[in-house]
Fold this protein.
Amino acid sequence: MRFLSNHEVIGLRATPDGERITGVSVRARGRMDEISALEADLVLDASGRSSKLTQWLPDLGYTLPAEAMVKADIGYSTRYYRAPAHVMDTFGALVVDELPDEGKSGVGILPIENDTLWVTLFSTGGKYPSIDVDG
Ligand SMILES: Cc1cc2nc3c(=O)[nH]c(=O)nc-3n(C[C@H](O)[C@H](O)[C@H](O)COP(=O)(O)OP(=O)(O)OC[C@H]3O[C@@H](n4cnc5c(N)ncnc54)[C@H](O)[C@@H]3O)c2cc1C
């Protein structure tokens, strides 16, 4: 395996009849003129949500596969609380899972630096947790 750092994939390469993907074109970051070809038996796109595959495949005449989407709608709100030293010394961490059916948020409490507790409410499905003190 070989890692090519500071390079950007700028497109797919295919056989002239478009039957087969043969690799990718790469460019050294910040060097617009230095484009080279990387041949490959298998091209795996791991470029996250900035992926250009939905552009590149139709450009080569391919039909895009149906997209599967998970609608997570995660929300979280965080406050920081000063805690007495004895709490910081003894407290580990606390996580209570959300109760989505009841529309209740979960909570995570974790000691961080400077005698501070990090308290985060979280929930999924678009029922965002409260951002006021009482909540
Ligand atoms: C603010 C924020 C907070 C988050 N918090 C959490 C969390 O607490 N817990 C959690 O589980 N998830 C969290 N996530 C989500 C998590 O970061 C992503 O789901 C995860 O990183 C996706 O991984 P990935 O490998 O698919 O893509 P990425 O991590 O996005 O990796 C893609 C890589 O490909 C590179 N790349 C892109 N295009 C090209 C190209 N053309 N050529 C070469 N390289 C390229 C990018 O530079 C990047 O390094 C958070 C996301 C954000 C934005």
